[in-house]
Write a structure and sequence with these properties.
CATH architecture: Up-down Bundle
Number of helices: 18
Distance between the termini: 5 Å
Number of domains: 1
CATH class: Mainly Alpha
Number of strands: 0
């Protein structure tokens, strides 16, 4: 792929790029995953350490991806990087995962959560129908033009962050504290090194996923050599702080037995803080906030599909753009996949399945920082990974640890992820082997 192929109007500002990162990260996970974690983990310290460790992992990933994004500022994300650093087949597999489930599944999960929150307030509504209508509506917004889509993204991201800040502040002043210690104990060491903790970390990493969101639109970001690393790092830091405070408030305000196994933990915590009437208002606001998560992924996902369509003739239809330069066919393909997932899949299965496949892709991409420095020593690097190699090794080590534990404890979902890759490899060899060129 040449740089000429990637000449898109650079209309995305640093603010919008940061909003895309924040909106991608703050979504389904933080308002849903704590309920699954407290089933097996009862320590306040261990639960918050989960979120701290997830934040460290996300930040180390953002630092590494920032170098790749600044030196190769083209749309496509991992698909583009892995094609250049390793081999086109590896890049295609990453792109295949992104196109088939990497964005469609998180969009479906966010829409499921949005519908779950809204039906808590309006029980007469049909949750699947709500999810389908919201995803279709957001997709149509982003087929218009990038400027309208950017304003839409900024508005709902600011609304979501404001909601979280209000929930944190009110929780500190209005909630009745629970009898849960947040200080470390000897028993926490056993918990932290258990397979239960590792699997719970999958949910946390899913909640932090999106720290790399801006790279998928790199060709459309203004001054990407500087703004891409800034957007990744600033967006990630904002979310780490908000996540730690928000989960502290959930645990501080709500008994663990009320959270255990529940999907809508934000609604339950709001009920503890504000009472039933206030929790209904908060449920509506959380639903509106989740629109920004759906929106950011609808923005980013089709850009990977578009780049694959440019490279491989079999998929060239997906590279077509409308008069406003929007890859509409790629957006509609993603909408079709989301619709299938909403009708057929479960929330928990989606998260675990995604955890394995996306962790593997991120692992190879971060490892690519080492490989690219060796393979392309003269490549311009306007930003170099802060703390490298330590920060990159931390990211790789934690991801490897997670992959091992997921495969051991969730073999069915892990094998499903590997099966997706095998199908992608088959598609590559019949359609792309002689067409996809290393840049």
């Amino acid at each position: 792929m040449t740089s000429e192929q990637q000449q898109n109007p650079r209309n995305i500002s640093l603010l919008t790029a940061t909003c895309i990162v924040v909106a991608n990260m703050i979504g389904t996970g933080v308002f849903t995953s704590l309920g699954f974690q407290v089933v097996d983990i009862k320590s306040g310290f261990a639960l918050l350490f989960l979120w701290f460790l997830g934040g460290v992992l996300a930040l180390c990933g953002a630092l590494a991806y920032g170098e790749l994004g600044a030196s190769m500022p083209y749309n496509g994300g991992e698909y583009y990087y892995l094609s250049r650093i390793y081999h086109p087949a590896i890049g295609f597999l990453s792109g295949w995962v992104s196109v088939t489930v990497g964005f469609a599944a998180p969009i479906a999960a966010a829409a499921m959560a949005l519908a779950k929150y809204l039906t808590q307030v309006f029980p007469f509504l049909h949750s699947t129908s709500i999810a389908l209508v919201v995803v279709a509506g957001v997709s149509l917004v982003h087929t218009n033009n990038l400027r309208i889509g950017s304003y839409f993204q900024q508005f709902f991201t600011f609304l979501k962050v404001l909601l979280i800040v209000v929930l944190i502040v009110c929780g500190l002043y209005l909630a009745e504290p629970q009898q849960l210690s947040f200080l470390p104990s000897i028993a926490d060491k056993t918990t932290i090194f258990s397979s239960t903790f590792a699997v719970a970390l999958v949910y946390v990493i899913y909640s932090y996923s999106g720290w790399n969101a801006a790279i998928y639109l790199a060709s459309e970001v203004k001054n990407p050599e500087k703004n891409l690393p800034r957007a990744l790092i600033m967006g990630t830091l904002i979310v780490v702080v908000l996540y730690l405070l928000l989960n502290f408030i959930f645990l501080y305000s709500t008994p663990l037995d009320k959270l255990a196994g529940q999907l809508e933990v934000g609604y339950i915590a709001a009920d503890q803080i504000f009472g039933s009437r206030g929790s209904k208002i908060m449920g509506i606001l959380i639903s509106l906030g989740l629109i920004s998560s759906i929106s950011s992924m609808v923005l980013a996902g089709p850009r990977v599909t578009e780049v694959i369509g440019k490279d491989i003739p079999l998929f060239k239809l997906l590279a077509r753009k409308n008069a406003q330069g929007i890859p509409t066919y790629a957006i509609f393909l993603q909408l079709l996949l989301v619709t299938i997932l909403l009708v057929t899949a479960s929330f928990e299965a989606i998260i675990t399945y995604l955890g394995f496949t996306l962790t593997l892709s991120s692992f190879l991409t971060a490892l690519g920082v080492f490989v690219a420095r060796f393979k392309y020593p003269d490549l311009a690097r306007p930003y170099r990974t802060w703390g490298h190699p330590a920060t990159t090794i931390i990211f790789l080590a934690i991801n490897l640890w997670i992959l091992v534990f997921i495969f051991r404890d969730k073999p069915a979902e892990s094998l499903a992820g590997l099966a997706t890759l095998l199908v992608g490899l088959f598609v590559y060899f019949i359609s792309a082997k002689d067409q996809l060129k290393v840049p």
